[in-house]
Amino acid sequence: MAIAAGLILSAVFFILLFLGVPISVSIAAASIVTMLTIFPFDVAIFTSAQKMVTGIDSFSLLAVPFFILSGIIMNNGGIAMRLINFAKLISGRLPGSLAHTNVVGNMLFGSISGSSVAAAAAIGGVMSPL
After folding, report:
1. Distance between CA atoms of residues 46 and 67, nearest Å
2. Distance of CA 36 to the CA centre of its chain
3. For residue 13, which of 27, 30, 100, 115 is within the disulfide window of CB 3.0 to 4.6 Å?
4. Is the pLDDT at 2 greater than 90, yes or no?
């Protein structure tokens, strides 16, 4: 049974790739075709719904939008620009100082907010015009 599922999955995937279908669509279509040929329809629907819900149920996925929101709030408050100026003071005389300033600013902002996602959201908005 498992060998047949693997063969069906591989065959459908490579046929769709050969036809020029994008990889993401090929993976999804091959998975759906394999699941519908191996399981009955009601079991396949229940299993896919259960896997989608457990895939979304993650604390870190819940925290990412809030970290981005904190980065935007800190950026609007002016903390990001002050950190960039401080990072420019530290690394301003080095060759490639804009890149060094970006790295040092992200490092400082990430240590304050506790999130690299928030640091990238806030410092990226400040560094783009520079």
Report:
1. 33
2. 29
3. 30
4. no
Residue 121: both structure tokens together: 């959201």
DSSP string covering 14-60: HHHHHTT--HHHHHHHHHHHHHHHHS-HHHHHHHHHHHHHHHH--HH
CA pair distance 129, 104, nearest whole angstrom: 17
Given a contact cutoff of 8 angstroms between Cβ atoms, the answer to whether 79 and 110 are in contact is no
Distance CA 94, CA 19 (A): 52
Quickly tell me which residue has 């046929």 as its tokens. 15
Query: C-alpha distances in angstroms, 85 versus 38, 73, 91, 105, 111?
Result: 60, 18, 10, 9, 16
Length of the chain in terms of residues written: 130
**Six-digit token pair at 1?**
């049974």
Cα→Cα distances 77→30, 99, 112, 113, 116, Å: 49, 23, 14, 14, 18
